[in-house]
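Thread: "does anyone have the structure for this chain?"

Original post by V.I.:
We have the sequence but no experimental structure in hand. Need at least a predicted one for the grant figures.
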Amino acid sequence: MRMKKTGIIEIENMEFYAFHGHFKEEQVVGNKFLVTVSIRTEVGAAAKSDNLNDALDYQKVYKIIKDQMEIKSYLIENIADRILDALYRELGDKILHIKLKLSKINPPLGGKIDKVSIIVER
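Reply from O.Q.:
Generated one for you, tokens below.
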């Protein structure tokens, strides 16, 4: 029995300016967000063929995440869940597992805070 060759495609610190947040000001002024995604995928076919059709197309991954980041939300939990749903909907046949980190830079919490993040896996 041959084992599948798997690997992780990771896209790190994609930066988006978006209008998410609980407070009205956040939805008007906006904020910077960072997204890192790690996707476990089968890599054996692509490694042999050198053909994008056999691989997880990370340009599509980026576009899916970008499209979801453009939809206003109140909570980062909602955004992260939508991103996972969209990735599985569009690329599910290439995905074995996803780990996603979504960070809001300098959140308005009343003090100096670099970022607040959520990490989700499915």
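V.I.: this helps a lot. Strands lie at 6-18, 31-42, 97-105, 115-121.
O.Q.: and The radius of gyration is 16 Å.
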